[in-house]
Amino acid sequence: MTLGNHEFDGGDEKLGAFLKNLTNIPIISANIQSTNPVLNATIKPYHIYDQYQLAVIGVTTPETPGISSPGAGTTFSDPVKAVQNTIDYLKATTNITRFAAITHIGYEEDIKLAQQTTGLHLIMGGHSHTLLGDMTGAAGKYPTIEENKDGDEVFIVTAYSKSNFLLVGNSLVILHMIGWGEYLGYIDVTYDASGKILAYNGAPIHLTNTTAQDPKLQAQIDAWRGPFEAFAAQVLGESSVELDQTKCRAQECLLGNFMADAMLEYRRNISTTADFALINSGGIRATIDEGPITRGEVLTSFPFGNQIVEISLKGEDLWKSIEGVYSEKSLYNERVVTSKIQVSTGINITYDSTRANGTRLVSLQIGDKPFSNSSTYNIVTLDFLAGGGDNIFQKKTDLATLDTQDQVLINYVQSQSPVNIALEGRIKDLNGTAFVPGNGTTTAPSGTKTGGAGSTSTTVPANAAVKNGAVGLSLVLAFVGATILL
């Protein structure tokens, strides 16, 4: 099993405590180096299956420090170099000829890994939630076949959800989930003695309500389900509209507005200093349907247990932070910003997605006063974001944390029921059209490229990486049976 970014959401200590209990499962990631003693002892670069003469190498996204919470002593090196160095080492020190990788770096990075290495012939990936196959909406074939630096074929299968690696009995099995459990990927490969794949068969299997359940496993699930279902079924209130999540990663969305408003009201009930609230779109995970709103729906939509915090930023820094969101690159450190944002009442954002990176933010309006570079603004946000998550803000420490996001939303639902809201145009993309300033707005000079307050801004395609915190392993993902020709 390899590690993904979410395994680090609780920090190194919590992850280490969890991994110590996985005594029968190899934990592999060749590009993670850690000074944490438990992680250092637990995470290995590869695992060898002697009976198949097969080495499986793991790698984790190097974006993890920006989208999760690893310790300062845990670093993530280049996946391509890590995999190639491991293959070269094993070729020099063992008789292994067959190499596969389980990755949590995303489909596009898996393609690069295949193209830029030698000796690797099978990649089982996660992180980008990419659906592969012949069904509608698939991003490519299952498997996707690329050529490596030697001109040999490399077979890539990815997980629509997350990935995990097992050994069952005497057969090699790699479980590969595609689509939050909606699909089970299956690929059976035949290797020759040199490690190349001669043949394969298999495809994603669509799991529906008619799919037969294993009786013993289903009995266990039913026993676990009872108490939780009673808790999750508690009705908190009603909604007259669908609180949509599906557009959150691309534009303003109703559930994003509702959650941000809940946070702002919560904070203003304690202190009157807050100007607005801001959350990351990637942390919004499911739509809340019209009708009764249950505790389970809230937890499904916001499953990470993030806590509310308030931070203060000078206007100049706030402009830079929001410009980075729409340019998808931080103006502080040049690293990728990995999520769009949703905001509460109290702020309006105008950007232009047709402008060059660093010049996309067009205007900010905060409250009913003109925006000022030198003014200080108080922002209600999440501890994850304030700590540098998604690379939106510069990392802040020693934060006073308040209630959790889900509890704040539960209280807000109860106070607002029945919920009846509509989009307000808090975030607007000019998309090349002219901007007409309103009262209380400050605009950037056209063509400014400094990226500071006095820049411009835009919207870009949603980044697949997401963050936030749920401690749970990126458990892997499709059956891969290996038939070896000796």
Task: Describe the fold and architecture.
The chain has 486 residues and is α/β, with parallel strands linked by helices. The chain folds into two domains: 5-211 and 470-484, Metallo-dependent phosphatases (Purple Acid Phosphatase, chain A, domain 2, 4-Layer Sandwich), CATH 3.60.21.10; 250-443, 5'-Nucleotidase, C-terminal domain (5'-nucleotidase,  domain 2). Helix content is 23%, strand content 25%. The chain is built from eleven helices and 28 strands. The chain has helices at residues 11-19, 37-42, 64-67, 79-93, 107-115, 215-232, 254-268, 295-301, 315-327, 383-386, 405-416, and strands spanning 27-28, 32-34, 43-44, 46-49, 54-60, 74-76, 98-104, 122-126, 144-147, 153-158, 166-168, 171-173, 177-178, 183-184, 186-191, 197-201, 205-206, 235-239, 276-280, 291-294, 308-314, 341-343, 347-351, 361-366, 376-382, 427-429, 441-443, 479-484. The chain has a six-stranded mixed β-sheet with strand order 4-5-7-8-10-9, covered by helices on one side. It has a four-stranded mixed β-sheet with strand order 21-25-19-22. Helix 7 packs across helix 11 (405-416). The longest helix has 18 residues, at 215-232. It starts with 10 loop residues before the first helix and ends with a strand. The relative contact order is 0.16. Mean pLDDT is 86; it is low at 162-171, 173-179 and 445-486.
